[in-house]
Design brief:
The structure holds two protein chains of two kinds. Helices cover 29% and strands 20% of the residues of chain A. Chain A has twelve helices and twelve strands. In chain A, helix 1 (38-52) crosses helix 7 and helix 3 (90-100) packs parallel to helix 5 (120-128). Chain B is globular and about 90 Å long. Chain B is an alpha/beta fold. Chain B folds into four domains: 8-207, Pyruvate-ferredoxin oxidoreductase, PFOR, domain III (Pyruvate-ferredoxin Oxidoreductase, domain 3, 3-Layer(aba) Sandwich), CATH 3.40.920.10; 213-396, Rossmann fold; 414-485, no CATH class; 490-603, Rossmann fold (3-Layer(aba) Sandwich), CATH 3.40.50.920. The chains are: A alpha/beta, B alpha/beta. At the A-B interface, strand 2, helix 3, helix 5, helix 10 and helix 11 of A face strand 9, helix 7, strand 11, helix 9 and helix 10 of B.
Chain lengths: 351, 613
């Protein structure tokens, strides 16, 4: 397999965003994943969301670990730097990169193996640190590159392609993130573009750690009868609970939602998310109740989806660290190095 | 060294045996600093347990008018404050030496040595009579022995008061209570013993232009001055104080006065894997970043070090080596990570390593490490150790050149990017093996994909044999460039002898003293202290020019010797190892004995094994 560049041919009639870019400008290299892979749909959703938000490609940073999902950062926004690091350790690379330059938009793409097994520790601590990034898990319940072993998100009773049944309970990234205090927690399905695109937009605009767990069937190793992460099973068992419409700063909110059923949330940059509750009993602003409901539904095999929990966060890493607004990597050396006289003063203590 | 009962001014060793967590550290620092302030060169070594309170701890103070920086290997005065270690402490005193002990509880059975002088001071009783509260009495008992020593050695009490006043500037009542304890010990000793002893101190001017500082503090200062902005670490002895010091200095010198904003990010990671990941992420993104750790941390960082090597991302790592293998003895010193750091990670990897010999060099090498890492786009490991890192060393004043500007290496700015038709991350344009990199956020044309998987010189994923190998071979070219940039060895070939000592890091002080001793015994040796890996070109020349080479290092497996045989043309048969690895810092006596055992075997009464000293 070698690197395949996508030809950059754009039809003049393609719609342009505020920066004058077409969707093609947010694409990357050709995907080398299996035809029909859910991950490619997520890539397409990221392209759409980035285009719609009119992000400057060079101001985006794409980060990943190891696995099928982690390859996908090469398949979108070729004008952004990417870092395909080591297995399960993307959050620490993201933390360091973000510490160096807080002004960029960090998107991490990971998988259920990368996040919930080898990378579980770093995932938890990135949440705890409230690292300002969008973290997407492309969750298929299976290890694809090593040909079909169960991952830590495989459901009890799920059957592998070779016939083995999983008996260990899954680790659910959504419930975990809510427990750890994440301020933006969503779940979606790679086959539901209508739901996923605005979620990605909102996640990119959220200040703090934003998690989107996307059920993303593996067509090769986990799309058979008996699998609980197949296209068929997911379509049947996923329950949109809260729809999030992302309203960018420059667009007026058209109040066509009924009072009481919608909840507009103002993001830090002034843009808004309008939450539309599809399940009236569900409250995406109450961490405890929401978690309990997600858990209850999971017990009967249903996945609630949408923006499952959101709150404004005021304690992302740089706020707590009191770093200046200007990126640390842009500070002049004269500001950073105290100079000979200051050293002389320091040495007085050691005489 | 001459017997302890002859007059020896400013040239003897005191060892103090106490229990940790009882305030003895303050007493010992006070003693050492008052000697240093009297202009007398002094060395202090702390042998402490991996424990918070209640285990044996020792502090060795060597008063050395000749300015030696290593252990002498002899104890002339023992202050035995710990009943648990009393028996072995008494044994360690050199013939003609002195024992000071707490005679509140007499120990006649243990005072059997006829060849030493015993001074019993009822320290506990004195403090119980003069202070209230259990904790205070314990703390003051230790300050009290400092008063006894002041009388025995003829230390200036005014200087001690001055130091206490500086230490407790905000708590003046503590100055008085500490001074009271000092005076109690001082007066008792003056009234009871023949003060001062033949071993005593006399004012000198041998410390002008010098400071007493530990290597971790000096390295942290280096990081502040080098412009490091991202510090990520996971606590581990004996590296933690480096990060503590960085935080302390940065809080003082890196906070914007008007806004209160901090011009640095200080991140306590969840483990060493994350710590190095953060450093790599930050340096990839254009900040100067570092971490500090010890052997176990380096083991954990191996995978990431391989990534940084292959993806060509700068990183600076301080390894404050401690005793291994495994958890080993966390509070004892060793040079046991030489091999691990040189080739850390799987596949063909090799890393630039710097070997500071003392705190002064920790400061300068910290700065150099950032320049090298960014110039070479690769991790640089600074291999200090517990002895350098946590003990106070007398060293020359640190100097800063205000003309210094960081070498950020080949990082293309926006203007340069715009001039390019297309940017490719790994094309070597000028033949030094180093290729230009770009930072995120500058220009979409400069975007590239950093990866640990096989890649072409264009930065694209590959499984093509030739494309893969081309990049791997270019990395070797970069290694050859590194050889020219790293600090050269320090060579002393004044003896012009066929015999050479070869060493690195904290062995230096002991070796330089050993060379003096050998010279006084008619044995001239040359000396080379290697300061970096890859070995600079002068290393090869020195090795070739000497028939017999003693390789001195502080580990069991002769790791440095192994590196020399792997990376130079020297024949193994010309290398003799002198290996010191019991966890204590190497002493000059160990080296003298080792060299003489080889060169003058018949004159040796008994060859000493590696455990001695």
């Amino acid at each position: 397999m070698t690197f395949i560049a996508k030809p950059k041919v754009a039809h003049p009639s393609l719609p342009k965003n505020a920066l004058g870019f077409t969707r093609r400008d947010y694409e990357g290299a050709l995907s080398t994943l299996c035809a029909g892979c859910g991950h490619d749909s997520i890539t397409a959703a990221i392209v759409e969301a980035s285009w719609a938000l009119a992000l400057e490609p060079q101001n985006m940073v794409k980060l990943s670990g190891i696995g099928c999902s982690s390859k996908t950062t090469a398949y979108f926004v070729s004008g952004a730097h990417g870092f395909n690091s080591v297995h399960g350790r993307m959050p620490s690379i993201a933390m360091g990169a973000n510490a160096a330059n807080r002004a960029l938009q960090y998107i991490g793409v990971s998988g259920d193996g990368d996040t919930l097994s080898i990378g579980l520790g770093q995932f938890c601590h990135a949440i705890r640190r409230n690292l300002n990034m969008l973290y997407i898990i492309e969750n298929n319940g299976v290890y694809g590159l090593t040909k079909g072993q169960f991952s830590a998100s495989a459901d009890v009773g799920s059957r592998a392609k070779k016939g083995e049944t999983n008996f260990q309970p899954p680790i659910d990234p959504v419930l975990l993130a809510m427990t750890l205090g994440a301020s933006f927690v969503a779940r979606s399905f790679s086959g539901d573009r209508q739901q996923l695109v605005p979620l990605i937009q909102a996640g990119l605009r959220h200040q703090g750690f934003a998690l989107i767990d996307v059920l993303s069937p593996c067509v090769t190793f986990n799309d058979h009868e008996g699998s609980t992460k197949s296209y068929a099973y997911t379509r049947e068992h996923y329950e949109p609970a809260v729809h999030a419409d992302f309203v960018p700063l420059e667009r007026e909110i058209i109040a066509d939602y009924k009072e009481g059923e919608t909840l507009p949330l103002v993001m830090h940059d002034g843009s808004r998310i309008v939450l539309r509750k599809l399940d009236t009993a569900y409250d995406p602003t109450n961490r405890t109740l929401a978690a309990a409901q997600i858990h209850e539904r999971m017990k009967v095999g249903e996945y609630l989806t949408g923006l499952l929990f959101v709150e404004r966060s005021e304690n992302e890493f740089h706020q707590l660290n009191a770093t200046p607004d200007a990126p640390l990597n842009s500070l002049a050396f004269e500001v950073l190095s105290p100079g000979a006289q200051a050293l002389e003063k320091v040495l007085a203590r050691y005489r | 060294m001459s017997p302890a009962n002859t007059t020896r001014v400013n040239d003897f060793t005191i060892k103090i045996a106490t229990v940790n967590g009882t305030g003895s550290a303050s007493a010992n620092t006070l003693l050492m600093k008052s000697i240093f302030r009297s202009g007398i060169p002094v060395m202090g070594k702390n042998y402490f347990p991996s424990n918070i309170q209640g285990l044996p701890t020792w502090y060795e103070i060597r008063i050395t008018r000749d300015g030696h920086v290593a252990r002498s290997g002899q104890v002339d005065i023992m202050v035995a404050m710990n009943a648990e270690t009393y028996a072995r402490d008494v044994k360690e005193i050199a013939t003609g030496g002195y024992l000071v002990y707490d005679s509140t509880w007499p120990r006649p059975a243990l005072l059997k040595r006829e060849d030493i002088t015993v001074f019993g001071v009822p320290l506990a009783r004195l403090c119980n009579e003069n202070f209230n509260g259990v904790r205070t009495r314990i703390l003051m008992k230790n300050i009290c022995y400092a008063g006894v020593l002041a009388a025995l050695l003829d230390l200036d009490l005014a200087r001690i008061r001055e130091l206490l006043a500086e230490t407790y500037a905000k708590k003046p009542q503590l100055v008085d209570s500490n001074m009271k304890a000092i005076q109690l010990g001082y007066d008792y000793a003056r009234a009871t013993f023949p003060c001062p002893l033949p071993l005593r101190v006399e004012q000198m001017t041998g410390t002008a232009g010098h400071i007493m500082i530990d290597g971790n503090t000096a390295a942290a200062l280096g990081c502040v001055f080098a412009g490091a902005t991202v510090a990520a670490w996971y606590p581990i002895t004996p590296s933690t104080s480096l990060m503590d010091a960085f935080k302390m200095f940065a809080d003082r010198m890196r906070v914007d006065r008007d806004s209160g904003r901090r011009n640095f990010a200080f991140i306590q990671a969840e483990d060493e894997l994350a710590a190095i990941g953060m450093v790599i992420g930050a340096m990839w993104n254009g900040a100067r970043a570092f971490t500090a750790t010890s052997g176990p941390g380096i083991s954990l960082m191996n995978e990431f070090l391989g990534l940084a090597y292959y993806a060509e991302v700068p990183a600076v790592i301080f390894d404050i080596q401690r005793v291994g293998p495994s958890t080993g003895m966390p509070t004892r010193t060793q040079q046991g990570d030489l091999m691990e750091c040189a080739y850390a990670s799987h596949g063909d990897t090799r890393h630039v390593c710097l070997y500071p010999a003392n705190p002064e060099e920790c400061f300068y090498m910290a700065v150099q490490a950032f320049d090298l890492a960014e110039r070479l786009q690769t991790p640089v490991l600074v291999l200090s150790d517990l002895d350098i890192g946590m003990n106070d060393w007398m060293c020359r004043d640190l100097k800063w050149d205000d003309n210094y500007r960081p070498d950020r290496g080949k990082v293309l700015g926006k203007e340069e990017i715009l001039k390019l038709e297309k940017f490719y991350r790994f094309i070597d344009k000028d033949g030094d093996g180093i290729t230009a990199r770009t930072l995120p956020g500058v220009h979409p044309k400069a975007a590239y994909f950093a990866r640990g998987s096989g890649h072409t010189q264009y930065g694209a994923y590959t499984e093509d044999a030739a494309d893969y190998q081309m990049v791997l071979d270019r990395l070797l070219k970069k290694w050859a460039t590194a050889k020219k940039l790293v600090p050269r060895a320090v060579i002393d070939a004044t003896a012009g002898a066929p015999v050479g000592l070869v060493s690195l890091g904290s062995c230096d002080g002991a070796i330089r003293e050993a060379i003096d001793v050998l010279k006084s015994r008619g044995v001239g040796v040359d000396y080379m202290r290697v300061r970096s890996f890859p070995f600079s070109e002068d290393v090869e020349r020195f090795l070739a020019a000497h028939q017999l080479l003693f390789v001195v290092e502080q580990n069991r497996d002769a790791q440095f010797r192994a590196l020399l045989t792997l990376e130079t043309a020297v024949e193994k048969s010309r290398l003799r190892s002198l290996l010191h690895y019991n966890g204590l810092p190497i002493s000059s006596a160990f080296i003298v004995e080792g060299v003489l055992a080889e060169l003058q075997p018949r004159q040796q009464v008994q060859p000493k094994g590696a455990l001695r000293g």
